[in-house]
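Worked example 2:
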Amino acid sequence: MNCVRINSYNTRMTSISIPIQPDLHQQMRPLNVFRDLPAVADLIELCFSSSMDMEGKQYLQDMRRAGGDHSFLRWASRAAESTSLPLSGYVWEEDHRIVGNASLVPFRHKNKRLYLIANIAVHPDVRRRGIARALTVRAMQHAREKRVDFVWLHVRDDNPHAHFLYSGLGFVELAKRTSWQAATDLNAPALRTGLSVTSRQKRFWPIQQRWLSHLYTEDLSWYRRWDFQRLAPGMWNQLYLFLTDANIRQWAAVRGNNLEAVLAWIPFGRGEPLFIATGEASDPDAVPALLLRARRDLFHIQSHITLEAPTGQFDGPIQSAGFQKLRTLVWMQATL
């Protein structure tokens, strides 16, 4: 029996052995980018379509397009360790059909390499047979072979079986974040409060920056690649935004002379997300007031707008502004 040793963190670091049944490997093989990407995209869509946002759907389209582009595949065979598409990983095959997948996506953070184990998907017909566990363990072993110290993954909070599986493999929860979506609406109501919603002023930036760093933490910046310096005031930044045609918008909620919250819209091309910045002592009406304003102001630009925030902290205010929950993801890390 083969074993993989990994570290698990509870109150102190321990080392555990994960047994792998030999017969499981008979149907597991490395991902082949020259032929597997469309089938993997179909499997991911089957397993996750009910909770997939626009960014996720675009991701699948990119996979299918890449799978039919021979020039891309020739490049991909050399660049599997540097691209965000799932060009490395492992699949589970039965009767010449891919029924399981675990992708490995490389990242760099603070000059160190890490992997995201993504798209862990098993066809409904073959679940509860240990396939997801075997694929995850093999992906972790791959990361260790590449001398990578940390691996990450995320799992939906309404999937306790998967959460239990990953915890048993040494993954520790480090963050929980919820994605929200709302339709833009020219007739979205304005809250009747003493708050004034204006454009973000230069003097608000230091407070906004501090709030952003608290709500969008460094722990996940390797994945999200948050670049809030684009929100900073100043002539050179404004010139850069003008030359790159970046249509960033910012609103501030103010009561008297006190800043209560700031909302920024940063169009990335996928999802066009909103970023809220607010403090623990801020007026609770500030967040819904800003979100309702964004739903009105962006009506002629976007049909839908999205927001990601720490789970629990803003759930009520965000819902009161007409946003619907898409999903909550638990971010987990294992040290190899």
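Residues 110 and 222 are 9 Å apart (CA to CA). Residues 1-22 have pLDDT under 50 and may be disordered.
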